[in-house]
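Running log. JK asked me to keep both predictions on one page so they can be read side by side. First protein, sequence followed by its tokens:
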Amino acid sequence: MDFSGGLYGFGLPFLAVLTALVFVHELGHYLVARWNGVRVEVFSIGFGPEIFGWNDKAGTRWKFSLIPLGGYVKMFGDANAASMPAEGNDGMSAEDRAVAFPHKRLGQRAAIVAAGPIANFLFAIVVLAGLFSFVGQPFTPAVVGEVMAGSAAEAGGFVPGDEVIAVNGTSVARFEELQRIVALRPEETLKFTVLRDGVEVQLQARPARVLRPNGLGEEHEVGQLGISRSGTGFIRHDPLTAVWQATRETFAIVDQTFTAIGQIISGARGADELGGPLRIADISGQAAELGIGTLIYFAAVLSINLGLINLFPVPMLDGGHLMFYAIEAVRGRPLGERAQEYGFRIGLALVLSLMVFVTWNDLLRIDGLVNFVKGLVT
């Protein structure tokens, strides 16, 4: 990574993207909470000491805080921003209980918690739909132009003119989708359905593992089939088609993310590909340099990943709360306060450990740091 661009090179695009995504996420919680009659005490962009803020007529304190790496909505009846129930809730008056989050029905609490990640997914669809309507979407037919000699495609029986319509049973509409599927599956035998002279033909190929630049100054191991497209295309959609294509793109990104996570867990992909705030800042700056369309697309991808991460069943995250609510639904009563407290402590430890790990990965990508660390220990 190269941060020579300074604040204007990567800092401002990063803060703009992150602030927008955090606002959308927390706004989802806020709107559904207010819709269910919950009093919201604080809506914060960032953590730590308040920089500036104001109170609205409903009594909510809207504020910007010093550390801009996240945000939270604190609802009445919660002890803190993590929505742990406050002590003394049982002694509330009937009026206070009516607007306290912990005293809402299970379904209402679950809807409020789930609203944040859902808002991120909806935001991504809206942003991508706008991008595909006004700028356009890369849309190249999945037709083989050339087959590289000695490639996996040649070994698998591909010939120029073949149109790939499915991979492992998943339909393919664009060459870009085919690239994405193959790139995530190096050295994995894939089953292709192609149209050849109007007849469906079944082929198998094992993409080679190669290093390929990602366009942001880094190289990643990806799968390569060894074919080229027959042409390039870029199409602007009408609003309804744009929404449909944006929804398909969102689901494709979710599938891509889960596939990559599964490969990291299984050891097929290195954990050093995980990135943290520094890498996000770096990519934000580089995306901004490539143009507003690239930055908007990156913001949509980041929004989807923010929604996914928050749905992981880890206490402290939205998914952890939903896991507790699922247990409550099965048991017929909430988990005890001590069990919840231990759960939140474990969740906090996991989240902090992950942050340390991905930040260390980020630091190792900074030019010269690896050699500096080696010099300290040798």
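And the second, directly underneath as requested:
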Amino acid sequence: MGYSPEIANVVDQNKKIHPHKFTLWVGIASIMMMFAGLTSAFLVKREQPGWTNFQVPVAFWYSTTVILISSLTMQLSLKSFRERSMIKYKKLIGVTACLGLVFMLLQFVGFRHLWINGMVLKGSGAAQFLYIIAGLHALHVLGGVIALLTLFVRSGNARIKSYNAVPVEVVSTYWHFVDILWIYLFIFFLWVQ
């Protein structure tokens, strides 16, 4: 039994990935390759003379907990948006953005601790790689926080009553990605210390 041309066209359109989601996945793939290259280079370079080992600061443990909680609040905000519970969505997206900022603050505290304890940029390849890897991750988290704040502001605008879930889904996917990326980096730092 065949579909009419109109129904077949709708079925074909539902199978296609949204262009924003496709672009996001291409971006995620390239970011993953960049971090895989940097962590691989870290492993190769650590055998060189003058390499300094480091202890993972306690603040990194706290920041890991914060970013895991933010992943949960992001998922709950997406669920609230899909259910059109906009007040709950706005609160949860705001909490997620705040948790992102707390994560960045804790990262700053952790790296300040490393700096004070002698993990400086000059002379140690470990410090250079560590600051580059974490700095790039922080930039990606900052981008996510900006996207979250944009969604938060848009949710409070009475003139915008769009229930298109694509922007929220894209930001949610990106936020989960930077969360998973930090978990990977955190485990990597624990392993190489």
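Observation for JK regarding the second prediction: The first helix runs from residue 5 to 15.
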